[in-house]
Amino acid sequence: METVIFHVDVNSAFLSWSAVEALKRDPDSVDLRTIPSAVGGDKATRHGIITARSIPAKKYHVTTGEPVVKALEKCPDLVLVPGDYGAYSRHSHELMDHLRKYAPVVQQYSIDEAFCDFTGTKKLYGDPVSFAHKLKDEIYETYGFSVNVGISSNKLLAKMASDFEKPNRVHTLYPEEVPGKMWPLPVGDLFSVGKSTAARLHALGIHTIGELAHTDESILVAQFKSFGHALYEYANGRSSSDFAARDKDTKNKSYSNEITISHDVTNTEEAHLILLSLAESVGSRLRRDGFKVSVVQAYYKDAGFAVHSKQLTLDAPTDSTQKLYETGVELFDLLWQEEPIRLMGLSGARAESGELEQLNFFDMEKSEKRKKLDTAIDEVRNRFGAEAITRASLLDQTDRKRLSRK
Questions:
Q1: Using CA atoms, how far apart are residues 309 and 194, in angstroms rounded to an integer?
Q2: ω into residue 56 within 30 of 0, thus cis?
Q3: What is the pLDDT of residues 199-251, one digit of tens each?
Q4: Residue 28: how many CB atoms within 10 A of its CB?
Q5: Strand 255-265 vs strand 52-53: parallel, antiparallel, or unpaired?
Q6: SS3 of residue 351 by DSSP
Q7: What is the DSSP string of 112-128?
Q8: Are 146 and 167 spatial neighbours (Cβ–Cβ below 8 Å)?
Q9: Strand duo 147-152 + 170-172: pairing
């Protein structure tokens, strides 16, 4: 089965999200994305640095990280807006939650980008390129900001592809496309190559990614040690790296599970049993990693592949299978209009580490019983395997009759 990886990257994220917020406040205002504008600093004092800029600002060679005073020298009419990190966090969560509706696996790489593994979903979504266009258009229509989507068979090439022409584009970069699409690019465009590394490569006479790919690896290792090997592999479109997420904030961490069903689910009882199975999986992984989640989302796809979802913020973070299940059922019952279901999912977000759990007096006994049950089930499964124990409610009728005879 061919691996299919999407890299979804928000175009000029902070600037785009600031523009969305400004248009919410005043729909008649000028869209910051259409004029030379930037996030950061203060135009009156000419202090601070640029943290994001619009595409029109790029034409004036305004760059992120440069002092405001220099940016204003390049573009005196540059519009500066302050950062709104609360809004940026909200929009980031919106994006990640939206991606999780579709992708079986989503790895958030930073606040504004994620890798999505769509391997094995062609029968569900069709051609990956066509679906990527649908996905990016849906994100724009729903949230008001655009993304680029890069598609390949590994994360490195998917990320490189998403950096091609912007904004609001879909690009592929499969291994067989590397010579034509990636090798002609400046070596500084290669993932992990910063200004200082690019300068050292230029000193070696290496100016394009293709030249780097055809350089004797031993020369690169002699110059850059182990990083030289990585440069050689990247230039040739190969990577064993898992691209560890750059955003270490655990509140961005989420846990989810979903199942594509071989038949249409049309009754509440079966849907609830599926939610219980999903809650078991999510809860077990939370307890294994020592996390609790404060947001629970239930979602499903109907027979027409339309996605329906609803989420709830809990009074206190939890890792309880029962609490996840009860919340999932509550959300599902509010959401479902009795249309046939082909896929169901349950996710927990805003994960927090720690053992503290806020309980009122009446919840304490119930919570303690749930915790003991979850612990006992986890111990059995850890010792004898995931299939060693199953809740009776999850057994089908045949299994129940067989067990009743024993």
A1: 41
A2: no
A3: 999 999 999 999 999 999 999 999 998 889 989 999 999 975 544 444 334 44
A4: 5
A5: unpaired
A6: strand
A7: TEEEEE-TT-HHHH-SH
A8: yes
A9: parallel
Residue reference for tokens 């990640």: 96
Q: Which two tokens stand for residue 263?
A: 């038949």
What's the rounded Cα separation, in Å, for the pair 211 and 163? 20
Distance CA 6, CA 148 (A): 10
Q: Is 338 a catalytic residue?
A: no
Residue 73, CA distances (Å) to 35, 43, 70, 182 in order: 17, 11, 5, 34
Instruction: Decide if 234 contacts 192 (C-beta within 8 A).
Output: yes
Task: Give the three-state DSSP class for 169.
Answer: coil
CA–CA separation, 358 and 338 (whole Å): 35
Which of the following is catalytic: 21, 94, 113, 211?
113
Q: Supply 186's token pair.
A: 């400046």
CB 215 within 8 A of CB 206: yes
Q: Is the pLDDT of residue 29 over 90?
A: yes
Residue with structure tokens 């465009």?
A: 189
Which two three-digit tokens encode residue 45?
Answer: 């004092």
Distance CA 189, CA 196 (A): 13
Contacts of 272 (CB under 8 A, 6+ apart): 329, 332
DSSP state of 12: T
Chain segment 110-131, per-residue pLDDT in tens: 788 999 999 999 999 999 999 9
CB burial of residue 84 (10 Å; 0-12, 13-18, 19+): middle
In this structure, the chain runs to a length of 406
For the beta carbon of residue 379, count every other beta carbon within 10 angstroms. Answer: 11
Single-letter amino acid, residue 242: D
Distances (CA, A) of 166 to 10, 32, 138, 143, 392: 10, 16, 17, 18, 53
Question: Which residues in 322-371 belong to E strands, given as ranges?
Answer: 341-353
Q: For residues 177 and 254, what is the distance between their CA atoms, to the nearest angstrom? A: 34
Tokens of 339: 């249309």
pLDDT of residue 211: 98
Sheet containing 307-318: which strands, arranged edge to edge? 255-265, 341-353, 291-302, 307-318
Backbone φ and ψ of 108, nearest 5°? -70, 125
